[in-house]
Amino acid sequence: MLITRADKEQEVKNLTDKIAKSKGAFVVDFKGMKVEQVTNLRKKLHTSESEMKVVRNTLAKRALKDHPAVDKALATSLKGTNALVFSYGEVNATAKVLADFAKDVEVLQIKTGIMDGEAMDSAKINFLATLPGKDQLRAQFLGVLNAPGSKLARCINEYVKKLGGEDAAAPQA
Asked: Which residue in 32, 37, 140, 146 has its CB near the most CB atoms, within 10 A?
């Protein structure tokens, strides 16, 4: 299938827009994966507000030129059969999906990534995948804030029971 110059320019523009919108990006090598495995990975990435795009390396390099930090982090990895994974939500959720999928499907290789302008190798990406998500961190933080108040309430309740017996601590109907 021949791709015209206009198609290539449109593809570069689309990639540039995706890079600009994303909070993080990853380069993965999917050589050897079956079609149903790629489809399954795309579905899992979609649930974590991410998108996988199979790209020609030359077009990807042209799109990266507009984003110097991303270009510096990703361009050297664009050799062979690659796909770019764009993370529009929580980057660690995308990293977790990729790391978990790479454990099950060993032919998937996570080459490199970028988050907040910082390049990440596969070890950093795997570490990022172990971190809790934003919602889980919020729940943990609220638990920490709530703990002293609930401990105080239990302590006062026990003190009231000791002073006046069980009837004093029970709410009046």
From this structure: 37
Which residues are paired to 54 by β-bridges?
Answer: 83
- Sequence-distant (6+) residues with CB within 8 A of 128 are 91, 92, 95, 115, 120
Whole-number Å distance between alpha carbons of 54 and 148: 51
List Cβ neighbours of 75 (8 Å cut-off, separation of 6 or more): 61, 64
- Average per-residue pLDDT in the chain? 83
**Torsion sign (Cα): 40, 89, 31, 6:** positive
Residue boundaries of the structural domains of the chain? 5-131, 135-169
Going from the C-alpha of 10 to that of each of 5, 51, 61, 90, the distances in angstroms are: 9, 18, 14, 27
Q: What is the CATH number of domain 5-131?
A: 3.30.70.1730
Residue 93 φ/ψ, nearest 5 degrees:
-65, -40
Coil, strand or helix at 121: strand
pTM: 0.70
pLDDT digits (tens, 9 = 90+) for 100-141: 888 888 888 888 888 887 788 878 888 888 877 777 778 888
